[in-house]
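Incident log entry.

Two folding requests arrived from the same account within the same minute. Monitoring flagged them as a possible duplicate submission, but the sequences differ. Recording both here for audit purposes.

Request one:
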Amino acid sequence: MRRVFLLMLCLIVIVCAVNPRAYANSWGLKGELLDAVSSVKTWNDYSNNSTQIDNMAIMSSRYHNAVFYLDNNNKLNVFTKAVYQPASKKSNNVDLKSENSNIRIYYDENEWYNFCYKEEEWILNAAKFGDFELEGEAYYYKTKDNKDNAIWNAKIALSNFNIKLFPHSVEEVIHSNFMREALESGSYILNSDKNDYNFFIDKSKKHKTEVYSAPFGKSAWRAAKGKAAVSLNGGLWFFGPYIKNDTGSFACIRYDVSERTQRIGYIESNKLGDFLSKWQYNNDEFINVYLITTKESYLTDDPDVSQYKQFIIPEGTQFTCLAIYNYEYAYVSAEVKGDKFVDGGEIVWGFVPLKDLQFDDFNNHEEALFDFMANFKGIWVMDAGGTMAEDALWLNADGTYRAGFINKNSTFIINGEGNWYISPYKSHENLYWNNPVYKITFLKNNGIANIKGFSYIENGISFTNVEGGGGYIPFDGTINNIEYFNENETQYDTNG
């Protein structure tokens, strides 16, 4: 009997070895998703941890959980950040549910995340975490908890959904709106549109090259206990920044350390041959804003997959923010010695959760120039340039305002109101193309923020961002009525 059992066991092992699909089918997968997962050996250590809904399932291994999704182009997408990882007590209590053609990542009745399929991607349209609730469409999510409510100005797709850094309160939503708007000029630097995957790989190169966390060569910190390196005949992405300084010329790359880990860092640009001949140095694109941690946090060089904590950051640590990445991370610069943040150590660039940061001079509202602001009280209408704010702004000297448009009946239609202030702009921050003397901040009562560079001339004012601007002139008519916006109202061009 024992001999028969051993023989059967050997046959099973042989079948699984020569037929990965049979091994994969033990996960309970089916159809095209099974075909995609079983076509490579990468996922042999994974098992199905949820109900399979169409071509989507949650898969788990000892160290890694992810949503596996086969899209309409037969591409297998693996979304690590969309579910809790094994270190979390919640990681095994997850399932996929389907409701009215929506997909729901479900932990329990007090925590779930709902996605609808729209424009060829899965978009968040509802969520619940305790007393915090979200519903609506991208860029206009309505959120509420037992203290407040606000609009979250974000677009969350399944591909960039980060369950670990998802807001859990309206207060966090308002903070997210403010920080992303204030640092918006830094959102174009680490832009996925600049990624070129495998474009420059020279398969004849068999050696590795050093990877630094910052473009300063041996003055920069290196991960992997000082030994971080990348093979030049493997897959890697050029990530945008191309830097030249006193220590050399460096290109920012992202590469796979394993199927569970990536790294973003810098290599000497000459290692890429003539690939960068079409690129210009972009040192001057980085912003330069001082931020400080509001609680204990972490720094990672892998914001897209593992979010591995390379450093634990104490509350009150100051950083220079260079850019922002997606909705969750600030790209920062600091100096370290060992595992401590110090002055005069190795230079490290990395990613810190934006929710754990605020401006070093957070009480900037106390710098509001109220006497100066009184010069601009009244109604202003858009006159030229791009859209920097609503078509009509009604500014009061006490720091309150109304925003909207003026219809053909000279009725001011309000679609937002709140507080505004003008404050000094620090030119070293590199946020606005024209380097203005001032910046203007609008904080709507619904939680939306709008922050722009501010300039004025004799009969007009202008708002600017990193690449353009828009001008306003005083409204020279008479307002006959004031109403609040409804969706059936036809907007009238106040410019003409």
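Request two (distinct sequence, not a duplicate):
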Amino acid sequence: MRETFAPWRTRVVGELWDFFRVEPEWRDRAVRRAYDACPKLITDMHYEARVQAVRTYYAKKLGRKIEKKAARTIWLAAEQYMQVIPWWCASHRDCWEYFVSRWCDPEWQKTHEACRQRRLKMPGPAHHQGNRTLDEYATRWSRAHEGRECPPLMAWAMAHKGKATSIEVDYNPEDPPEAYSNPTVHTRLSQYTEMGREKHGPEWNPSTEDLDGEIIMRAQLREEMEAKLQAQEAKYQAQLMEQQARYDARLQEQQAKMQEDLQRQMQFMFHQWHSGGMQPPPLPLPPVGTSSPSQGTPNISAGSNNQPVSPPAAWSPFPPYPRPPPM
């Protein structure tokens, strides 16, 4: 397959120079970059062609212009895709039909949506290097900042803050997590600095030293272990909550069953008493300190029953004993 593709790859790169020119001293580097970019462009072509087909269909068939961001979440039917075959695939209808069959495959759509949701979880862009290497970013930053030196760690940190040509982009070890495009960058820098000073001493400055592969590996292992511990803790917490929920549900079920059994027994007892001519037991006496329920006095008319009685006076002006005679 590689031998079959090689002539076409050479032809594509060769036709590139029909539209662009490059300085002789940069030609080898440009050719190498073109060969590196072609596989990525071919991979992205399958996704970008679908987005462009959606935009073309909305513009030509519905008279509406939509942005790429909105088009990425819109899915057309197979016959709608076939109405907007691009010019570069017009003579290869079978290739376009293959694209359409993949886009309309539910399994492919499910995988595509899962990958998109995973990318959306990123709090910010991965970096601001573009297609440049870290060394090229450092060189470009130095050129834009009056020739200042840019060690690898500084370049890596600033590549997660902004473009190399931006005057506002500079390295400051006191920057908060919000200064970076991704807050995890601040965490990684802090871990690297902490472990580096444990190894080289408290005066070690990571921004002026070369990257230490051993520290990077240890920091990565620590980060992975912390992530695993957090995942295990979350798993155990979820299991504990699930067990507690099952226990509460079982307890409620037992209480409801006991209440139902008690109610059934009471109904059975009252039925037995009623069928046997027996009177149900009297109501229980009220607890000490509470008022007794109001009951009528037998053999007394209703008009004279339950009349309010005045409470006895707490003090009487008459003495309980007769006064002695005066002397």
